[in-house]
Specification:
Blueprint: H1 9-24, H2 38-45, H3 51-66, H4 80-87, H5 93-108, H6 122-129, H7 135-150, H8 164-170
């Protein structure tokens, strides 16, 4: 996927958003399951210098984690969860929101559930987002915590999460 490695951030962003749309467009889906280098390329973009590229990569991974007929196996994707957890502290609100949403989809997608309970900083990062300055980020963090509390095969223990209840009650 050479566009995902293009020197121009605008080209990387456009490529990631196009892949996102192709993953989930009802009447224009393209089978992405077997695309060589797709997941690795998108995971590498989670660390891109451009916030717009990081957001596009996270959103695309969110669609690939959830969309039924175009779901890509993400369980074995090295650095995916750690990359998303690190984005929970990103300077850009839209990146924080996209990372939280992708983690929510990753937690609940039937065949994309994986060991999120071992992800260092996951719950603390989401709890900190409950106090974010942006309402949509707070809302997405709450939904993601709901997914982690509910997802039967991927439930994350939240009982001993400092600030969790206080953060939810304050919303």
């Amino acid at each position: 996927m050479s566009l995902l490695a293009d020197e121009a951030a605008s080209a990387r962003e456009a490529a990631a958003w196009t892949l996102s749309n192709l993953a989930c467009a009802v009447d224009n889906k393209v089978p992405l399951r077997e695309a060589p280098g797709l997941v690795a390329g998108l995971v590498s973009l989670l660390a891109d210098s451009s916030a717009r590229v990081r957001e596009a990569a996270a959103e695309t991974l969110s669609h690939l984690a959830w969309t039924d007929d175009n779901r890509v196996p993400l369980r074995e994707a090295p650095r995916l969860v750690t990359g998303l957890v690190s984005l929970l502290a990103d300077k850009a609100a839209r990146v924080r929101k996209a990372a939280a949403w992708t983690l929510s989809n990753r937690a609940c997608a039937h065949d994309n559930k994986g060991p999120l309970r071992e992800a260092p900083g996951l719950v603390a990062g989401l709890v900190s987002l409950l106090a974010d300055t942006k309402a949509d980020v707070r809302e997405t963090a709450a939904w993601t915590l709901r997914s982690l509390a509910w997802a039967h095969d991927n439930r994350v223990p939240l009982r001993e999460s400092p600030g969790l209840v206080a953060g939810l009650v304050s919303l």
